[in-house]
Amino acid sequence: MKRFILIVPTIVAISVIVFFMLYLTPGDPAIIYLGDTPATPERLAQNRHAMGLDRSLMVQYFSYIARVAKGDLGRSLRTAGSVLGELEYRAPSSAELAVAAFSVTLVLGISLGVVSALWRSTWIDVAAMVVALLGVSMPIFWLGLMLIFVFSLGLGWFPATGFGGWQRLVLPAITLGLLTSATLARLARSSVLEILRQPYIWTARSKGLNERRVVGRHVMRNVVILLITVAGLQLGELLSGAVITETVFARPGIGKLLVDAILNKDFPVVQGVVLLIAVVYTVINLLVDVSYAYFDPRIRFE
Amino acid sequence: MTTLRRVRRSPGMMLGALVLLVMVVGAIAAPVLVRYDPLALSPSDRMLPPDPHHWLGTDGFGRDVLTRILFGGRISLRTGAVAVSLAIAIGVPLGLSSGFYGGIVDRGVMRLVDIMLTFPGILLALVIVAILGPSLFNAMLAVGISASPTYARVVRAAVLTAKPLAYVEAARAIGCPNARIMLFHILPNVVAPIIVLGTLGIAGAILAAAALSFLGLGAQPPQPEWGALLSEGRNFLLNAWWIATFPGLAIMVTVLAINLLGDGLRDLLDPQLRS
């Protein structure tokens, strides 16, 4: 319960940072907001008043919050469309990619990590960890381009760009999922090794339980706990990677929206996207924390 | 003696160090090693596949790819080093004071760190670049600043382990001033995690800066930064695959080498860091 309350100051802090982004930028906010239109003194004054820049900073901040609460995230400088509308339009593409990539990450990362730990120091372990190390060292955008080159341009199995249909999802999901699973595999391996060292595993073995039962019952249950935290940590990587993956595969998602907006200096859009991503990330972290407490009885009864 | 033996028993680390050395030497010696100018346009030599004259081919403007990769190495390696130095310069003092002084300083710093960490991965760097504008320098700043919270946390944890140690108490008992205690008694305990984190951090910084440049938010053309090279090569993927492939390989090999070195250092210096 306490954690739900703690989330409020965090979100407040995020909104403050996002709000102040505009003012930290070198240059007059009024001019920035006009974008490329020529700025005559009259227009500037008019704009300043319209933006409310002649009021105190506190008042401006609160009116910003009030607008956001009503769902008004402003209008794009480039398209004059509502920022919220843009976000809604692009959410499905990003959501689809996130879910698909996360599934790949979980399946690949966990199985690789667990198998590595269980068959420690055998060739399986070494091979898996070499692959994981390669994955961690590889730039996402390079992997994406290489996959496009081989599977799209070369073999023609999958389309290279765009959104819609499962075929367009395969390459981006593999790109993003593969790299995040590399980190997850390494973390999973050390987590499982950590668990295997615990006294209660020795106890179970000395009781004469056959290895399968030891692994199945005692190890896996605790592995799940650790892996929830670990998988939650991957979310950050996934979000960052999504920004790049969407650009490489030209998917109309939120990440690409952010990058384009930064390049175009389209501040309302940048603010809106950053706000959304930061809040979503915080909420999901909270959910992970809560579920961690649920699965680990030791924490629940603290 | 034992340390040296442990180093020799770690082939990964040796390999990583060796490869890294090769890359660094290649980058430093770049102007001497190559015949071509990385920035000179040569329309008659556009998009030549790898051959004895151009070992890695030429790009869309006729520039030799190998040359551009070598010069790009200077940029990428320097970017990684600068970004990590910045992260250390910001994060270590914060972590030191937070762990050492405790109380309100600790709470304040940790709150700041938590706020910075509410922005996942690259997002903080993107925000900073959005504010300052796209350029290689701003990308270095952005990556450095967004990496600093981790250093603050790790250093703080190390300080908290070192503080209760007997010799710190002893130093305080004889009236040693705080600054001196921090510098001579606590800092040595903190150095090991910083070395490990810093080494691995350079790898991360190179990747992050390359990503920013790839997106057009870092190094601007015609700078041959590796990420920017990949972005250029993207347009020629069908006809001239070498333009994108080799810079990417360069990134991967360098980062791999640094990771091997860093992992080895971690096993050597601070096995506790594995968790």
What do you see in this structure?
With 302 residues, chain A is an all-alpha fold. Chain A is built from 13 helices and no strands. Chain A is globular. Chain A starts with a helix and ends with a helix. By secondary structure, chain B is mainly α. Chain B is 73% helix and 0% strand. Chain B has helices at residues 2-8, 11-28, 30-33, 65-101, 103-117, 122-132, 136-162, 166-173, 178-214, 226-234, 242-269.
In short:
The complex is a heterodimer of chains A (302) and B (275). Chain A has 302 residues and is an all-alpha fold. Chain A is 79% helix and 0% strand.
Number of helices of chain A: 13
Portion of residues in beta strands of chain A equals: under 5%
Q: Sum up the overall morphology of chain B in one term.
A: elongated
Molecular shape of chain A = globular
Taking the alpha carbons of the first and last residues of chain A, their distance comes to 13 Å
Uncertain segments of chain B of ≥5 residues (pLDDT<50)?
none
Largest interface: A-B, 46 and 42 residues
Count, helices of chain B: 11
Low-confidence stretches of chain A: none
Search tags:
heterodimer, A: 302 residues, mainly alpha, 0% strand, B: 275 residues, MetI-like fold, elongated
Helix-strand layout with pairing:
The complex is a heterodimer of chains A (302) and B (275).
Chain A: H1 2-24, H2 29-34, H3 41-51, H4 57-69, H5 83-118, H6 123-137, H7 140-154, H8 167-196, H9 199-206, H10 211-248, H11 254-264, H12 267-295, H13 297-300
Helix pairs in contact in A: 1-12, 5-6, 5-8, 5-10, 5-12, 6-8, 7-8, 7-10, 8-10, 9-10, 10-11, 10-12, 11-12
Chain B: H1 2-8, H2 11-28, H3 30-33, H4 65-101, H5 103-117, H6 122-132, H7 136-162, H8 166-173, H9 178-214, H10 226-234, H11 242-269
Helix pairs in contact in B: 2-4, 2-11, 4-5, 4-7, 4-9, 4-11, 5-7, 6-7, 7-9, 8-9, 9-10, 9-11, 10-11
